[in-house]
Amino acid sequence: MVAAKDNSKKDHGKMTQIHCAALLFDMDGVLINSTPAVARVWRRWAIEHGFNPDEVVARAHGRPSLTTVTEYLPNSDHKAENREVERREIEDLEGVVTLPGALDLLASLPEDRWTIVTSCTRRLAEVRIQAAGLPLPKKLITSSDITYGKPHPEPFLKGAAALGFPATECVVFEDVPAGVRSGKAAGANVIAFTTTVQKPALREAGADWIVNNCADIRLLDASSGLKLALTDVL
């Protein structure tokens, strides 16, 4: 089980220490800012098909694109439509950059103690990881590797298993309610970031801790599991 304790309180937030075996990172909104590109692609797709673009963009974030396509076009060729969405997302990399603290945090971690669990396809994930200059984990889990997407627990269960640990000993990093629920359903503790939605929605979804981004997290020790420090806990 993940152990945690509050060490001190500051005027601008709390500091918390967490002990765990491994870390499971969502990608978009956690390690990478791809929100403008995602919004552009889905907004255009929604308008072409006569749907409310704001609604489609909100529903698409944090879930496999095939899920969104199937919901809105139940009688279409889902795979063909999804391939077209993927093609557009791969081509639109403008503004795809790392989020604050992501590179430093990943660089500090033992490579066998973390991975990325994303709702992107493998091809799109690899393109965005490369565009943002992030290291490519050896055990990347994408929508290409699963049957059920977030909020189902399967993605994070597979991410934990790929690293050789039960999900209950892992900490998940997420930015949207669907991802938070997926992590909690898998039995993991969840750190949520306010990079995409506001704190109340993350708290309602079950987040154990909420911080701004990876810059609020640092590795203290990796000699026996992982010891993390969270600052400015919201």
At CATH level 2, the architecture of the largest domain is 3-Layer(aba) Sandwich
Strand order of the largest sheet: 6-3-7-8-9
Order of helices and strands: EEEEHHHHEHEHHEHEHEEE
Question: In total, how many beta strands?
Answer: 11
Oligomer: single chain
Bin the strand percentage.
Answer: 15-25%
How many distinct helices?
9
User: End-to-end distance, in Å?
Assistant: 23 Å
Unreliable segments of 5+ consecutive residues: 8-12
Q: Count up the domains.
A: 2
Query: What is the level 1 CATH name of the largest domain?
Result: Alpha Beta
Indicate the structural class. alpha/beta
3D shape:
globular
Q: What is the fold-level CATH name, i.e. the topology of the largest domain?
A: Rossmann fold
List keywords for this structure.
single chain, 234 residues, alpha/beta, Rossmann fold, five-stranded parallel beta sheet, four-stranded antiparallel beta sheet, 9 helices, 11 strands, 38% helix
Written account of the structure:
The protein has 234 residues and is of the alpha/beta class. It folds into two domains: 169 residues, Rossmann fold, CATH 3.40.50.1000; 57 residues. The chain is built from nine helices and eleven strands. The strands form three sheets. The chain has a five-stranded parallel beta sheet with strand order 6-3-7-8-9, covered by helices on one side. A four-stranded antiparallel beta sheet has the order 1-2-11-10, with no helix packed on it. α1 packs across α2, α3 crosses α4 and α8 runs parallel beside α9.
